[in-house]
Amino acid sequence: MEDATAKARPASTSMLSGVRRALRRNHAAKVALGVLALVVVVGVFAPLIAPHDPNAQHLELKLRPPFWSAGHQSGYLLGTDKLGRDVLSRIIYGARISLLVGVAATLLSGVVGTAVGVLSGYYRGWREQVFMRLADIQLAFPTILLALAIIAVVQPGVWILITVLGLTGWVSYARVVRAEVLSLRSREFVVAARAIGDSDWQIMVRHLLPNLTAPLMTIGTLQVAAMIVAEASLSYLGLGVPPSIPTWGGMLADGQLYLRSAWWIAVFSGVAIMLTTLAINVTGDMLRDVADPKAYKN
Predict the structure, then answer these.
(1) What pTM value is reported for the model?
(2) The 3-state secondary structure of the chain, one letter per residue
(3) Of 35, 207, 231, 280, which one has the greatest count of Cβ atoms within 10 A?
(4) Nearest CA-CA partner of 114 in 52, 167, 178
(5) Measured between alpha carbons, how far is residue 35 from residues 48, 64, 272, 290 in Å?
């Protein structure tokens, strides 16, 4: 036990020092991490931060411009939409849905895809053939089209959307993990573990999974950003989250008819999507470099 604890502490210390070193070298990662932290805080504490109820309608205040424009309404910093709802409050509440769908769908697809990839790469044979053919079949359909087809026949909802996106995004994990496991299964540490009597389950959990951290982290961060964009796309088409829940994609759909007269409805929600996905990708690149044992070796 003491030896295991002694080995665990330097590993965590090394990880933290790697993050600090990465932030010192990568100024873009500092900005991205700050933006991402702001989005998370805003999403978690939306009821405390939002100045207005995001669904409160004031038709007498509809299409009021942002605070720097003439004709703006006091208390509505980013203006109002076609129903007089506060754009800033809807963007703040929309962050909750985007983060929830992005993270939850990524976790679901990560668990399914990693399990499929490890089993396929370790056991080979019929398991590999079955799983990889299923992956090929799913890759034959565009992900967003497959999600549209499923959601069109079920009742739209947040958890339905998470489930659909999660179960349509496992292929990327499965293919990458399978390739990594194929290269690891014949390595000396796996052969030694098998020689001392470790079971297949122990080898996969204790020896293979820890060596998949870097690729999983890379795919995961890219997947979170992709899931946020997918949720916004489906909400824009009216097949994602119900209209009663504020979403960035729904705001884009609401503002498309007012791009000339009330551009702020669509532009601010689009900027929120762009900044969030960009921050996630840049932060993910930094974490991938830290997780890579060859990173910062000089």
Answers:
(1) 0.82
(2) CHHHHHHHHHHHHHHHHHHHHHHHHCHHHHHHHHHHHHHHHHHHCHHHHCCCCCCCCCHHHCCCCCCCCCCCCCCCCCCECCCCCEHHHHHHHHHHHHHHHHHHHHHHHHHHHHHHHHHHHHHCHHHHHHHHHHHHHHHCCCHHHHHHHHHHCCCCCHHHHHHHHHHHCHHHHHHHHHHHHHHHCCCHHHHHHHHCCCCHHHHHHHHHHHHHHHHHHHHHHHHHHHHHHHHHHHHHCCCCCCCCCCCHHHHHHHHHHHCCCCCHHHHHHHHHHHHHHHHHHHHHHHHHHHHCCCCCCC
(3) 231
(4) 178
(5) 19, 27, 10, 20
Q: Which residues pair with 80 in a beta bridge?
A: 86
Contact 98, 90 (CB under 8 A): no
Contacts of 242 (CB under 8 A, 6+ apart): 156, 157
Residue that the structure tokens 């601010």 belong to: 268
CB 276 within 8 A of CB 269: no
Q: CA nearest 252: which of 276, 221, 229, 223?
A: 229
Residue in 164, 25, 148, 172 with CA at minimum distance from that of residue 101: 164
CB 126 within 8 A of CB 187: no
Distance between terminal CA atoms of the chain? 33
Rounded Cα–Cα distance for residues 20 and 35 (Å): 17
Location of structure tokens 């003491």: 2
